[in-house]
Amino acid sequence: MADKKISELDLVAAANITGEEVLPIVQTGTTKKTSLDEVQRFIVNHLEPTTLTVSADNTYDLGDSAYDEAELIVLTWSGSNGNATLTLPDVTEAKNLNRTKRIITDSTFSNSTHAKVTPYDTQNLDGANSSFDLNRAYEGIKVWGNGTEWFIIQQKA
User: Fold this and answer.
1) How far apart are CA 103 and CA 80, in angstroms?
2) Threshold 0.90, pTM exceeds
3) What is the DSSP letter of 57?
4) Of 8, 12, 80, 131, whose CB is crowded by the most CB atoms within 10 A?
5) Would the pLDDT of 152 be above 80?
């Protein structure tokens, strides 16, 4: 197949790619080689969860370096009943434009344990400077930032 133009390739033969084939890439003006297997290692096609253990009367900054890159945060409750606060990252930072974050609770949550997802400083979550309360097992939300405010775009209860 190396002697054919792309438009002349047999689509059935092309469908049998194994992943070991060598692919040319250009990086900063230099042509290099890689394989589909190597490229696929760098493509995130699944969610890597970050576990966050929360407890009453504590605040957790989701913009902190430990959670900033996390797209999926799984919450575990520890200790006595009460309220924990999760502060969303500053949505006006360029890296948060068109960004999503998913936050879910595990089996340790109940109606007496509350993780309050709050916007940063005076910013808004769904048009208000108020929190979203996660207070049962296997509950979750997905938020999206438009550079000005956070929106709840999915809710699981």
Assistant:
1) 21
2) no
3) T
4) 131
5) yes
